[in-house]
Amino acid sequence: MADRSAVVIGGGITGTLTGCALLRAGWKVTLIEAQHIGAGSSSRTAAGIRQQFSTRESVLGMRYSVDFYKRWHQTMGQEGQPIEQNGYLFLVQGQQAWDAALKRVQDQQAWGLSEVQALTPDQTLERFPYVDPDEITGATWCPSDGFLRPDVVYNEGAATFRALGGTLLQGSPLIQAERVGGRLTSITTGKGAVLNADVFLDCTNAWSRRVGDILGAAHLPVQALKRYLWFIERGESMSPAELLKMPLIISPQGAYCRPENAGSLMTGWKHAAPDVSADFEYEDQDTVEPAYFHKNDADSRPFETWMALAQALPPVGEFAGISATTAGFYGTTPDHNPFLDFDPNTENLIRMVGFSGHGAMFGPFSAQVGAALAEAGGSIDHVSVLGEEAELAPFKIGRDFGAAEAMVI
After folding, report:
1. In this structure, what are the phi and psi dihedrals at residue 347, rounded to the nearest 5 degrees?
2. Full set of structural domains in the chain with CATH
3. pLDDT at position 322, please?
4. How many whole angstroms separate alpha carbon 58 and alpha carbon 51?
5. CB neighbour list of residue 49: distance below 8 Å, 6 or more residues apart
6. DSSP state letter for 43
7. Which of 179, 229, 248, 284 could lock onto 258 through a cystine, CB 3.0 to 4.6 A?
8. Rounded mean pLDDT of 183-212?
């Protein structure tokens, strides 16, 4: 068989893992990154990884991703440890929300997530003594969830990509594309490299709108939305060991937190934000608007987040103070599911974008789907993971957005 060639655009977690999957399938692969590996959203993520989703395919895909990250030494041949399985704890308040949570747990268990549990307030307090049981109707808990070390994933992913024979071009933004009819023939980077390939893969997420315009691709409803993370110093209300064991916790209002290290808690809470996909710059990732800066007054979003968490987690209210703010962009879709499919306007372009904050955790599953699409040479209906068939209808371009993913934070 003649060499099959692919160009992957975007050097974050999705791009590096997809490049490795293609190389293992026998493809010749070039990966281009406009800045440096992990320079975009992959280095600015809260990096949670969970299997507690509301749709079967996301649960199955994340079960696969957790298994992949657990076996990192075998799957990637690297020495790092990218996953911390501290678990995910969703705190629930109100009977209607609790009824929906109980139904989700039943569904998740039926979809193979056997370890997920619904906890009463007393059961929650027994396992997590820093939770105020009077503030919740119940909780859902999955001990095999947790969070990732994204720098391990994209840096060691890039190392494996090189070791497998891939060509990595950093500081090489896409500037031009050549097409013949409905097919891409080559792309040109900012360093002057002209790359021909059989298949091209867009793994640029929040940058996908402008990349798609250059490629002549279909316009996808992927919005670039600003998101922030804040770091609260531990103080004396919780021991270092207790903080390090803490799961990723989501309050009933949607504010969330997880340990960053023995002395610091990472926190976040989504908010209304304009779509800036058409005009944001690389440097804008790190721009912090005053309402989201931790050194502003107590009405700012970081302090609202801290207080929302403290309501359900009283010891967090006694932490020493917010020490830092970081920012980045989510590439979001109307139903919060990514696009993993061939572009309808370009027969040899695969779009892998719109992860809605879940790109790091979806990485191994996305790579599996991307390689399967490339192998098939066109859209496919399912992919095999963990001995089961994951239907790809929820991730196809042109789908009905009615069945939205409900578990978005």
Report:
1. -70, -15
2. 4-77+150-222+334-395 (3.50.50.60), 86-145+223-332 (3.30.9.10)
3. 96
4. 7
5. 62, 65, 66, 69, 83, 145, 146, 147, 148, 360, 361
6. G
7. 248
8. 96
Pairwise CA distance, residues 370 & 26, whole Å: 14
Overall size of the chain counted in residues: 409
Do 195 and 186 form a contact (C-beta atoms < 8 A)? yes
Strands 248-250 and 223-233: unpaired
pLDDT of residue 139: 98
3-state secondary structure of 10: coil
DSSP assignment of 354-379 equals --TT-HHHHHHHHHHHHHHHHHHTS-
Give the span between the Cα atoms of 208 and 203, in whole angstroms: 8
Identify the residue whose tokens are 């068989």. 1
pLDDT number for residue 318: 97
List the structure tokens of 371: 């390689």
E runs forming strands in 10-56: 27-32, 48-49
Q: Does pLDDT of 360 surpass 60?
A: yes
62 token code pair: 């994340």
Task: Label the pairing between strands 339-342 and 223-233.
Answer: unpaired
Q: CB–CB of 49/148 below 8 Å?
A: yes
SS3 assignment, position 398? coil
pLDDT at 2: 56
How far out from the chain centre does Cα 225 lie?
Answer: 14
CA distance 119 to 141: 7
DSSP 318: T
**Continuous segment of H or E residues that includes residue 264:** strand 264-268
